[in-house]
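Re: that backbone. C-alpha cells:
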C-alpha cells in the first residue's frame, strides 16, 4: 500500500531483504557446484586469459600459444615482472572469467593452474606428456570453432567438480561443429585430446590436431590465485596414505 513499515518490523524486513538477494533461480535450475561459482556460466562466452611463469622458455611460450588455439577465444598475455595480485586484478578489471597459468621445469611444461574469476575456485594440476601441434605431424590450419566436449569417466563427486572447472573454459558449440575435445580419465590421469572429424559416407574419420597433454589434479582451493594459502582448501591429494594406490578419485569405478 506504499506505506512505511511499522518500526518493530523494519529490522526484520531488512534482514529478509538481504537473504532474498541470493534466493532466485538460475537459468539451468538447481546447480551442483559448491558455492555456485558457475551458476551463470553459459549465459555469455567465457573470457580466458593464458599466461606463464616468469622468464618462460621458448617451448613454454609455444605451448601457451597452442593452448589458446585449443580454447576458443582465449588470449595470451606476457607475464613480464607482474606480481600475481596485479595480474589477477588486471584480469578482473578486464572481465576475464578464467586465468590459466602454465609452469615448467627445465623447459618442460609440468604444471597448470586454473583460477575462476572473480571469486574462485582455483584448481592446480600437474601437466605431463605435452606434445605440440607441429610434433603431431601432418596438420593443416588450426580449427577455431567451439568444440563439442567429451568428459569420460569423470563421474565421482570430485570428477564432476573437476569436469565443471574444465568444461566452462569452452563456449557453447554450434550443432554443426566438426571439432571434438576429449577429457578422458584413466587411472586418475585426465588425457586431453583435440580432434576434428569428417564424414565419409557411413563412416566417420578422426584426425588429431593437437596439442596433446595429460592433467592430474592435486589441489582445489575455494579462493582465487593471489590469495594463496589464505584461501580454504576444498580438496587436496594425499599420495602417502596407505590406500592411495587403490583409490579411484575421479571415477566411481
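Recovered sequence:
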Amino acid at each position: 500500500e506504499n506505506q512505511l513499515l511499522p518500526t518493530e518490523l523494519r529490522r526484520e524486513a531488512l534482514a529478509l531483504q538481504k537473504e532474498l538477494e541470493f534466493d532466485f533461480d538460475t537459468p539451468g535450475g538447481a546447480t551442483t557446484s559448491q558455492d555456485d561459482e558457475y551458476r551463470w556460466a553459459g549465459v555469455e562466452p567465457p573470457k580466458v586469459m593464458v599466461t606463464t611463469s616468469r622468464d618462460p622458455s621458448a617451448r613454454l611460450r609455444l605451448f601457451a600459444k597452442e593452448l589458446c588455439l585449443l580454447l576458443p577465444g582465449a588470449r595470451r598475455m606476457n607475464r613480464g615482472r607482474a606480481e600475481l595480485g596485479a595480474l589477477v586484478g588486471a584480469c578482473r578489471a578486464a572481465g576475464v572469467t578464467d586465468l590459466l597459468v602454465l609452469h615448467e621445469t627445465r623447459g618442460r611444461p609440468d604444471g597448470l593452474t586454473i583460477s575462476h574469476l572473480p571469486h574462485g575456485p582455483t584448481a592446480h594440476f600437474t601437466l605431463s606428456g605435452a606434445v605440440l601441434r607441429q610434433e603431431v605431424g601432418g596438420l593443416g590450419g588450426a580449427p577455431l570453432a567451439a568444440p563439442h566436449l567429451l568428459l569420460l569417466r569423470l563421474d565421482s563427486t570430485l570428477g564432476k567438480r573437476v569436469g565443471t572447472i574444465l568444461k566452462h573454459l569452452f563456449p557453447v558449440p554450434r550443432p554443426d561443429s566438426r571439432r571434438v575435445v576429449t577429457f578422458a580419465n584413466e587411472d586418475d590421469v585426465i588425457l586431453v585430446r583435440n580432434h576434428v572429424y569428417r564424414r565419409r559416407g557411413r563412416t566417420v574419420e578422426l584426425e588429431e590436431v593437437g596439442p596433446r597433454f595429460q592433467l592430474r589434479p592435486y589441489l582445489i582451493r575455494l579462493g582465487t590465485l593471489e590469495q594463496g594459502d589464505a584461501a580454504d582448501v576444498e580438496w587436496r591429494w594425499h599420495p602417502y596414505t596407505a590406500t592411495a594406490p587403490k583409490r579411484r578419485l575421479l571415477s566411481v569405478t
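The radius of gyration is 21 Å. The chain has one domain: 48-246.
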